[in-house]
Structures are given as C-alpha cells and as structure tokens.
Design a protein that fits this description.
The complex is a heterodimer of chains A (about 350) and B (about 325).
Chain A (H helix, E strand, L loop, with lengths): L1 H16 L18 H23 L14 H9 L6 E3 L5 H7 L3 H9 L31 H16 L6 E6 L6 H13 L3 E7 L2 E2 L2 E2 L12 H5 L2 E6 L3 H16 L5 E6 L17 H4 L7 H11 L5 H23 L28
Parallel strand pairs in A: 1-2, 2-3, 3-7, 6-7
Antiparallel strand pairs in A: 4-5
Chain B lengths: L2 E2 H15 L3 E5 L16 H4 L4 E3 L4 H13 L3 E5 L10 H15 L6 E6 L14 H6 L4 E3 L4 H13 L4 E6 L2 H4 L1 E2 L13 E4 L4 E5 L1 H15 L5 E5 L2 E3 L3 H11 L2 E4 L7 H14 L8 E3 L10 H7 L3 H13 L1
Parallel strand pairs in B: 2-3, 2-4, 4-5, 5-7, 6-7, 10-11, 10-13, 13-14
Antiparallel strand pairs in B: 1-8, 6-12, 9-11
Helix pairs in contact in B: 1-6, 3-4, 8-12, 9-10
The chains are: A alpha/beta (about 350), B alpha/beta (about 325).
C-alpha cells in the first residue's frame, strides 16, 4: 500500500513539476493553491531579510556566519504554513521562510544574528541555532539528524498527556539524511506511530559534497518504505507543488495516517554559508531544472496568472524591506552580552551548580 | 525484610510512576513481561500500562525522544541497557540535553540510568564507568550512589530535579548490597557523606569503589589505622567542602575510582584539594583508578584491572608511611 501511495504521489508531482501555465491575457485566474500569495509574501520577506543579513556579514557586522535558504524558500514556507497552535516545528539551517510562517518574529532573527542580549539565545548561541521551545519552535543543534527523535519525543509526550489534534514537522537535508541519528529517529517515529512529517530538501550539496558522494540509492524517497513512512517526491522550485504536497502530508498525519516523508529537489543557490563561494558547483548543474529560483518562478506565476498587479507586488516588496530594516535597527540598538556580567551557570537549579574554584 | 540495591532502584521507579503522572520509562527491554536486562523495571509495565515502553536498539533516538518529551513537561527515565552503550547517545546527552537550558532558558528534566561498572566476565563493552565523561561536560548532574538507601532516594531526587541527571547505578552492587529498609529521605543532592570516620587518612570514593574503600579501611583498622571514608554520592556537583574538611582532619588523601585513570573524578578531587587545601596535606595526595587498558573479560584479569579492597589498602599503607 505504501508503494502505491508513493507511486501516486510521484505521478502527481510530475504534473505539479511542469512549468507554470502561461495564461496570457487572463484577468483573474485562480492561484495554484489557495495560500499561494500568503506563502509568496513570506518567501519575499525571507529573501529580503537574508540578503540584508548577507550584506551585514560582508560589512563585518555579523560575527560567526550567515546561513541562508536561497532557493529553498518554497519548500520551507510550506513547512511552517500548515502548522497550527500546539503543533511542533523543528526547522533546520535553511528554514527562515518556514520559521517566519510558523510565527517566529523577525526580531528573533536579527537579535540572534547581531548578538543582542535580549534575543531568545542572548548571545549564547548564534545565527540559525535558535528557537523558542516554549512556543514549539525547537532550537536546532548542529549535529544533523538529532532533531528528528526530539520531535518524536514531543509528540509522544503530547499523546501521553492526552492532547488531541497535534502534528510535528521536522526538516532535514539530504546531507543530514546520511547520519545514524536520522536513521534512528525515523525508525522510532514509525515504531511509535507519531503524527510526524519529515521534509527532506535535497539541495544537491552537503557543504561541497555532491549527491554522488552522499548516497547511492536510486531515489531518497525510496527510503520511506524501509522506515514505514509514506513517501512523496516534490519539485521544490514550484511553490504550488510545495504547498500541495507538504500541506497534504500535514493533513494526512493529522488524520491519523502513518508518518510522512517528503523529499524535495532544489539547488542551494548560495554557499553552505556566506564564507563559501560555492565555486565547486559546475555550470551545467546550475542549468538543471531543479536549479530554478523558486522565488522567481513563483513571481512569474503571479504575473502570468495576473494574481495581483505590479503595484501590489511593489508594495509587498517595500513592506518587506521596511520590516527587515526595522528589525535590524531595533536589534542594533540593543545591548550585547558582557563576559563579566554573564550568569555562567548551565543548570536551572543554581544550588546544584558545581564550584570548581574556591570562592573569592 | 531485606532490600537489594537493584530492588531499591525498582522500588524508586514504582514510587515515581505512582506519585507523578509525568513520569514514564523508556529503554530497551524495559517493558512487557521482561522488565529489563537486570530486572530493574520488573512488573512495572503491567502495573503502569502505557508508561513503561520498550524501545528499539537506538540509544541516540531513545535519549532524543526523552529530551523532546521533557520539553513537553514529562519526566522521562531512560534506561540504558549498559552504561557502555550510552556512548551512542553521547550527542543527545551532551549537545542537546546539556546545552539546552543554557541556550534557550528551558531546562531538560530527564534522568538517564546507566548500569555501570564491572562484574566478572563482562569484558570491554559491558563494564564501563562513564561518570567522568559526563561530569566533564556542562549542564549535567552526575549521581553515583554507593548504598541501597542512596540508590533509592537519589533516583527519586534525580527525577525531581529540573536539569538532566546521569544516574550511574553500579551493577556489582545490584545483588551484593542489602539494606533492612528504604529511607523516606536522603542527604541533599550534591552533599558528600562521611561513610566512616577516621583521623589518619581520607579515602574519597563513590559507587562500588566506596564499598571497596570501606573494606580496605576495615583491614587497616586491624593494623591500628583509623581511615576516614568520604562517599561523594554525586561526582557533579562535587562536594569539595566535605572533602577539604576531612583532609583537614587527616592530612592525607587517597582517591579511588573505577573509571580509567586519565583525568576524571579522582583527578578532579586531587586538583581541588591541592589548589584549595595544599596547606592541609602532610603527604602528596594519591589516586587509584582502573588500569589504562580496555576492561578485560577473564575474572583473573578483571579483578586486577579495577581497584579492590586489597590494592586500596596497599596504596593506603604506602601513603600512611610517607
């Protein structure tokens, strides 16, 4: 039955993956998905924010690194968009669009990147290693695959507590899919039959390592059957398809179907981080269909279908710039943490903190 | 009535499951009618349906799951089948549980039970003592109970603590150690205990090595030496004050631990005493650990590999002559 589900999804994907229809002259066509425009605006906001973060990094105003999701915004936004209050989201490195759609304030991002003491990580952790676990946005660790089982645990807890109507969505890349931790987490999710969607974005490079040195299976989605997941493939450059496939996967686990694996294909349109010029990506790869820029494709769809006029698009762009500038200006004015004023205690029970030095 | 160290651990878990609906137990073979490789959860799955759950052989994911559940307000207890296998879960324990409060301000109240230390014939992969590894990393509390009473009260305390606790229970003590009854309350977490008073030399130890140290102290008593034995109870936090106060009385310090010799709990005690109480020492402090090889299978080799009452007494005699 799983095999059937997978095949069905693939044939569906092929249809979704075809180039957006060019209905010139149509006055008002229906968008490819009823949340298409809303999703597009999150993507636009993300691209605007991340371009600004890159320029701050280049100007030496961000320490550590900047990791952007350029080319992955369509997949990512769909990951955040269909989650409701009480659902769990475990975003990863390139999931700014999903984080924003899930409800992360822009100020969290700029505070973390700029090292504000008032941010959620308070200068103790930086860039994409942030979250609001109390708001069900988990704070990723760098060890890939490790967030899958943590997400499973949140869902098991909700079931043990008797909560109803909750799902979890965890993001991973094709790089992270090759870890032992990922394998253990996936297997456990299926054993425990928790309502989990795992969205794997194959951006074709684990840092500099191409797919052929990452895995040898025919298609990563085939692994779904082995884990006891239902698997779906997706053209991650097509926003309509992303909303359709990921939205349906979320709906299915909410309805009690087995855990879902969605494997999206895109090209990372940046380096691993902004320190990396990605010169190892050959030109012919950049000409592949999966290398399309999902934001441009979505915008072209809007224009082609005449979903909104040019003036509105311009207004949305201006609005995104204003939001980003406001969030950056606010974070820049905030105090940085100070080593001699920091609370150097890694335990919440202060009385149980070890005292290696004698009191002065 | 007589209760073993192992039964105390089972009783503590039964009490926790009874008293606190947030508690559940997760691990390999802990559920069903089996009740764990050592029977530490025997009968609990039947008594508490749906709350004592078998997991696949996936140490990383087991701890990851416990961490996620803790984020949602649960109080999971993870049983590692053997402490040795917790190496697979190091990433989740150190990088996820140990960093989470510091990074996000949300503590992770998990208890990871590690059946630790050597027993005859268990070999390199079923005998390890991991307390020094966990104590090295920030954000974790490391308990090493040496008595039946502590095995019981400290496990109850571990689950009550909001931070992650690594609870090292010693397999050698499971059946060897018995008590008449279980106490209502123990010493506060982080407080060491004077297990035996003396004035000639202080032995600082924990877990099974505390029992070996007590036996060594009895042997030395026959030769007229009064040995004080300090049971650390938790290696992190380390009760430096109690250790220093003891060394102030005796002037001599021997630290005994079962983990490997490089660094670790015994080295930490000596570092603190020499830097904070150098003036209290009448002789250079000494330590005794397992040998710096993998743990051997054959009983003849194993009994020499780890510290025992005999070589603890020999080391103490040497130190008393100085």
């Amino acid at each position: 039955m799983l095999q059937t589900a997978q095949r069905t999804a693939k044939s569906k994907t092929k249809k979704a993956a075809s180039a957006p229809s060019h209905k010139t002259g149509a006055d008002k066509a229906a968008p490819p998905h009823d949340r298409f425009l809303e999703a597009f605006r999150w993507m636009l906001l993300t691209r605007t924010l991340e371009e600004k973060l890159v320029s701050l990094y280049r100007g030496g105003l961000i320490t550590g690194g900047v990791y952007i999701g350029k080319g992955q915004e369509a997949v990512s936004v769909a990951c955040g968009l269909f989650l409701q209050k009480g659902d769990i989201f475990a975003p990863l490195i390139r999931d700014q669009a999903g984080r924003s759609a899930f409800g992360e304030p822009l100020l969290d991002v700029t505070r973390t990147y700029l090292g504000s003491r008032l941010g959620p990580m308070r200068g103790r952790d930086g860039n994409i290693h942030r979250g609001h676990p109390r708001n069900n946005e988990l704070a990723m660790v760098s060890h890939l695959g490790a967030m899958i089982s943590v997400t499973v645990g949140t869902l098991m807890a909700k079931r043990l507590k008797g909560d109803k109507n909750f799902v979890g969505l965890a993001c991973i890349g094709e790089g992270g899919m090759q870890t032992g931790s990922f394998h253990e987490g996936m297997n456990l999710a299926a054993v425990e039959q928790v309502p989990l969607v795992v969205v794997a974005t194959n951006n074709h490079y684990a840092y500099s390592t191409p797919n052929d040195r990452e895995f040898a299976c025919r298609d990563l989605v085939d692994r779904a059957i082995g884990y006891g997941f239902e698997g779906y493939s997706l053209d991650g450059t097509d926003l309509g398809a992303c909303l359709d496939v990921i939205g349906s996967a979320v709906k299915r686990v909410r309805a009690g179907r087995p855990p879902q694996l969605v494997v999206a294909s895109v090209l990372r349109l940046s380096g691993h981080g902004e320190h990396d010029d990605a010169s190892y990506v050959p030109e012919e790869v950049k000409r592949q269909p999966f290398a399309r820029d999902c934001l441009k494709v979505a915008e072209q769809t809007i224009v082609d279908l005449n979903l909104v006029d040019a003036e509105t698009l311009g207004k949305w762009r201006k609005d995104a710039i204003a939001q980003v500038e406001e969030a950056i200006a606010a974070a820049q004015q905030e105090p940085a943490p100070e080593g001699d004023k920091e609370d150097w205690c890694a335990l919440s029970n202060r009385g149980l903190a070890d005292q290696p030095e004698s009191p002065e | 009535m007589s209760i073993t160290y192992l039964e105390a651990i089972r009783e503590a878990q039964a009490k926790l499951l009874r008293d606190d609906e947030r508690v559940f137990i997760y691990g390999q073979d802990v559920g069903g009618t089996f009740g764990g490789a050592f029977k530490a959860t025997k009968g609990l799955a039947k008594e508490f349906p749906g709350r004592v759950l078998n997991a696949p052989i996936s140490e990383d994911a087991i701890v990851g799951t416990a961490i996620g559940a803790a984020m949602q307000g649960m109080r999971p207890i993870v049983e590692m089948q053997f402490a040795d296998f917790s190496s697979i879960a190091l990433n989740q324990i150190l990088n996820q549980a140990g960093t989470h409060y510091w990074r996000t301000n949300m503590p992770i109240p998990i208890t990871v039970r590690l059946p630790s230390g050597g027993t005859k014939g268990s070999g390199p992969f079923h005998s390890q003592s991991m307390e020094s590894i966990y104590a090295h990393y920030p954000g974790l509390i490391v308990m090493t109970p040496a008595t039946v009473e502590d095995a019981y009260t400290m496990l109850i305390e571990a689950v009550a603590i909001d931070d992650p606790v690594i609870y090292c229970e010693h397999k050698y003590l499971y059946y060897h150690l018995k008590a008449d009854k279980l106490p209502e309350k123990g010493l506060p977490t982080g407080r060491a205990r004077i297990a035996r008073e003396g004035r000639d030399l202080t032995i600082v130890s924990y877990s099974a090595m505390m029992q070996e140290s007590l036996a060594a102290a009895e042997e030395l008593e026959r030769d007229g030496f009064e040995i004080e034995v300090v049971d650390l109870r938790t290696v992190k936090p380390l009760d430096t004050d109690t250790v220093l106060a003891s060394v102030a009385r005796t002037g001599r310090l021997l630290c005994v631990g079962e983990s490997f010799p490089w660094g670790g709990a015994t080295a930490e005690v000596i570092a603190r005493v020499t830097s904070q109480g150098f003036h209290l020492l009448d002789a250079a402090p000494q330590r005794l650990n397992a040998k710096d090889t993998p743990i051997p299978y054959h009983p003849n080799l194993w009994s020499t590999h780890r510290p025992n009452a005999k070589n603890v007494a020999a080391k103490a005699r040497q130190l008393l002559r100085e």
